[in-house]
Design a protein that fits this description.
Bound molecules: S-adenosylmethionine
CATH class of the largest domain: Alpha Beta
InterPro entries: COMT-like, COMT_C, COMT_dimerisation, SAM-dependent_MTases_sf, WH-like_DNA-bd_sf, WH_DNA-bd_sf
Number of strands: 11
GO biological process, one term: methylation
Order of helices and strands: HHHEHHEEHHHHHHHEHEHEEHEHEHEE
Organism: Cinnamomum micranthum f. kanehirae
Protein name: RS-norcoclaurine 6-O-methyltransferase-like protein
Structural class: alpha/beta
Shape: globular
Number of domains: 2
Radius of gyration: 23 Å
Largest sheet: 8 strands, mixed
CATH topology of the largest domain: Rossmann fold
Keywords: Methyltransferase, S-adenosyl-L-methionine, Transferase
CATH superfamily of the largest domain: Vaccinia Virus protein VP39
Strand content: 15-25%
């Protein structure tokens, strides 16, 4: 093929691939629904050669399995890297085995990320993306695609539809459990020096509770919306005090404030209001805000998996809350305009950073 024609075919393929990318999401969701990774992992622990299609069909939670469709679906999942495939020694049947990727979608595996990925694959989370255009409408500045679809803001939807809220807060809890040991490492000196901390928008309290467990001299509290606090009190974090309130109105006094995944939910104007409330309540000289957020790369030019995830997360903030992910430069500008001095940005795991800042006099 001529070079120009080959270039055109590649470009055409790229556009079709974008148009059909949702198929990957739906196949991943199906793999989770059927517990395919759990079945294949459990089987191959006893039978290292793998599981045949017939054996797999028998293990599915279905009375009757359409074996031809199962074969096609498994072929797609192999292409996606979720499983690997070979054939039996007699070459009669396909054999499926786990991959590195399938370890992440085990129900009880140590590496399982199911609580993190299940909410984003639900119908209620996917449907607002159909209204991405409303985010462009300058006349409807505060209307998010989520609100257009569901008729209320994300936080209200979680209190009205507890199943949605439960899934979301489970995801936040899983993410916090993964990140908080790194946050503690980075902020150890700060935690040793302070007497009190409020986890602003701290949800079920797992972050504050982990800090309280390692630094018992720090009085740890969680400030969140009244409906979240009502639920969080039953989440089993006894070493934490829960405070129902509104971070835009006032934040009780503490030596340090933790804002994990809070500011990315909001546009710059709202962030400035939250940071002003933080500044008002922190001790002058010595108070600290600890921000835990993704820090975006300046250029969004990568085509690797993580670049695409970062891009989707940033667009997700636009869809769900009207917020945004920020670059290091944007964090610096935002904090400076709220009267904070950035002390340090420390990258931790999977694109996240800990940003420590002090109020300027
Ligand atoms: C993305 S979640 C982050 C939860 C937690 N910090 C974490 O990282 O796991 C945002 C949190 O902000 C809370 N929130 C939203 N609006 C709030 C407000 N006006 N005052 C206090 N908390 C609020 C939500 O209820 C939610 O728990």
């Amino acid at each position: 093929m001529e070079e120009a024609a080959a270039t055109e075919m590649r470009a055409l393929g790229q556009v079709f691939a974008h148009a059909t990318a949702f198929a990957d999401t739906m196949l991943l969701k199906l793999a989770v629904q059927l517990g395919l990774a759990d079945i294949i992992h459990a089987h191959t622990q006893k039978n290292p050669e793998g599981i045949t299609l017939t054996q797999l069909a028998k293990s599915l939670p279905l009375d009757q399995v359409n074996i031809n469709n199962l074969s096609r679906i498994m072929g797609c999942m192999v292409r996606m890297g979720l499983f690997s495939m070979s054939t039996t020694s007699q070459g009669q049947e396909d054999l499926f085995k786990p991959t590195h990727s399938s370890e992440f979608i085990l129900k009880d595996g140590k590496k399982s990320i199911l609580p993190l990925i299940m909410p984003v694959m639900q119908e209620w989370a996917i449907s607002p993306w159909h209204f991405l255009d409303v985010a462009l409408d300058g006349n409807k500045k505060n209307l998010t695609p989520f609100e257009k679809k569901h008729g209320c803001k994300l936080w209200e939807a979680f209190s009205k539809q507890p199943m949605m809220g439960m899934m979301f807060y489970e995801a936040m809890k899983a993410e916090t459990m993964a990140l908080i040991p790194e946050v503690i490492k980075v902020c150890e000196v700060t935690f040793q020096r302070i007497g009190s901390l409020i986890d602003v928008g701290g949800a079920t309290g797992i972050g504050a509770s982990s800090i309280a467990a390692q630094f018992p001299h720090v009085k740890c509290s969680v400030l969140d919306r009244p409906d979240v606090v009502a639920l969080a009190k039953f989440a089993g974090c006894p070493n934490v005090e829960f405070l129902a309130g509104d971070m835009f109105t006032s934040i009780p006094h503490a030596d340090a404030l933790l804002l994990k995944k809070i500011l990315h939910d909001w546009g710059d104007d709202e962030c400035l209001k939250i940071l002003q409330r933080c500044k008002e309540t922190l001790p002058k000289g010595g108070g600290t805000v600890i921000i835990v957020e993704a820090v975006m790369d300046k250029e969004m030019d990568g085509d690797d998996a993580w670049s695409r995830v970062k891009m989707a997360n940033d667009m997700g903030m636009m869809v769900f809350t009207g917020g945004k992910e920020r670059t290091a430069e944007e964090w610096k500008v935002l904090l400076a305009s709220a009267g904070f001095d950035i002390y340090k940005i420390t990258p931790i795991m999977v694109g996240h950073s800990v940003i420590e800042a002090h109020p300027l006099p």
